[in-house]
Amino acid sequence: MDKPSLPSGTRDFGPDVMMRRKYLIGCIENTFKRYGFLPIETPALENLRTLQGKYGDEGDQLLFKVLNNGDFLAKADEKTLLNRDSKGLSPLIADRGLRYDLTVPLARFVVMNRDKISFPFRRYQMQPVWRADRPQKGRYREFWQCDADVLGSNGISNEADLISIYDDVFSELDLKVTIRLNHRRLLDAFGNWLQGTQNLGRFMQLIDKADKIGFDGVSQELKANEIPNGIEAWTFLHSTSQMNSPAAILEALQKQESIQNEHLQEGIAALTALFSILDKLKLNNKLQLDLTLARGLSYYTGCVLEVVPSDDRIPADFKIGSIGGGGRYDNLTEIFGLKDVSGVGISFGLDRIYDIIESAQLFPTNALESTTILICAMDETTIPHAFSLAQSLRKAGIATEVYPTAAKLKKQLDYANAKGMHWAAIIGDQEMQSGMVTLKNLQSGDQQTIGQQAITEYIKP
RNA sequence: GCGGAUAUAGCUCAGUCGGUUAGAGCACCAGUUUGUGGAUCUGGGGGUCGCCGGUUCGAUCCCGGUUAUUCGCCCCA
Known about the structure:
The protein is of the alpha+beta class. The chain has 2 domains: 15-63 and 100-189 and 261-359, BirA Bifunctional Protein, domain 2, CATH 3.30.930; 369-459, Anticodon-binding domain (Rossmann fold, 3-Layer(aba) Sandwich). Helices cover 40% and strands 18% of the residues. The chain has helices spanning 15-34, 48-51, 56-61, 78-82, 86-93, 103-112, 157-172, 184-188, 197-207, 210-224, 230-241, 246-255, 262-278, 350-359, 383-395, 409-418, 429-434, 454-459; strands at residues 38-39, 45-47, 65-66, 96-98, 121-130, 142-151, 177-183, 286-289, 303-309, 324-329, 343-349, 373-377, 400-402, 423-427, 436-441, 447-451. Strands 1-5-6-11-10-9-7-8 form an 8-stranded mixed sheet. It has a 5-stranded mixed sheet with strand order 13-12-14-15-16, with helices on both faces. Strands 2-4-3 form a 3-stranded antiparallel sheet. The longest helix has 20 residues, at 15-34. The protein is globular and about 90 Å long. The relative contact order is 0.11. The mean pLDDT is 88. The protein binds one RNA strand of 77 nucleotides through residues 3, 5, 8, 56, 58-59, 61-62, 101, 129, 131, 133-140, 143-145, 205, 295-297, 320-325, 347-353, 376, 378, 408-418, 424, 426, 428-430, 438, 440, 442-443, 445, 447.
């Protein structure tokens, strides 16, 4: 018999981990609801046509494809087969794939259900996604995203709402983060200076690495890639980003002659409006207008957002990258045949948030609580009685278990301890005859014999 | 797609400069006279030392391959 194993990049979650994941999920979901978002779910499988071409070339390569059923090779082209041409063959044998994120499925959903949706459509979705990436620390092949998106509204106030959600959730989780913000239009404005959109795309890719390789690293890469005016543009961007107020940054952009065009004005107008709302909100976490933030996903067209942890309690060597991201995408539904629907959304990377909070030991201890009381029967004949007591406790909202056999008391109490229970109720001959129960506090060790009705009052804090 | 590291009990890991019965802690089971636990004690079960091949009288240990895991790079949550 083979040893059982898991596909790489996937994990089982035991009860202790699940309790904490549920705590995170609950916190995020409650916040989404508080902002008026409604849930949807979509299938794990999507048609590959839906997924392909939305995430850039790199993204396409990371799609998990699902082999067709039936005798698919019979229909395959002979040349392709004989040439062992994987790229040519794959469209012939795989029509479906696992979803890569929740945004593209949302766009498909909205297009298909446009008649039932009233816009602006505020939906949230918390489901696993899959990427055929090389697993490493903080990177899994199956991981959860928790998304909130607004579709069908251009208003920049939506961005303010979403930033506020980020702030609320991480405040509630007691994790200090920095929310980075930029606008694609501001970067688009650099197109002319860099002499072309291709250079601009490469430029954005390179400056996005600034956190990792620093100012000089990016400069070297720009030089190596021979981006026209790349160094000049980067030097300007970098120094401008150092300024501490958004107003100062926007002003500096206005003064830079090489980027004067309609893109720049559009971006500045949007951000000015956004900050006029955000100025009225009290945020607990740092919000940073960072012109070097580009973000990889190719469908963003407006604001882009990213959340990075910035909490002192995280061990210094625990580096894991961003734990959330989002932005505005103006044309995503158009690909599926619905024009003029702008979308904006954010995503929480549940698994990374878990890893961070675990590393900083910020999970509340009560996130682990499970069963409150164990009923221990001393012999088989008292088990039915134990069940009737359990039923009344459960009706009172107390999580109750009956130990399934009349095992030795030591064993039953060991079990209660292992599950972190607070109470044990012991029922034997003595209790049966008197109609009482021996109630033991497993933390203090105190115990007393009391009437069955009194238990509920006793246990409830 | 590229590079590094690792692979021994259910888990975390020792170890053998190549040599007879491969160890520890945790977990599990049993007992300490049959109704009192959360690090009492005693005992017990459990391993073709990842897989295939080579060197050798002899390989868990050395060498080659392979697979898996893991950490980086690319990219990303």
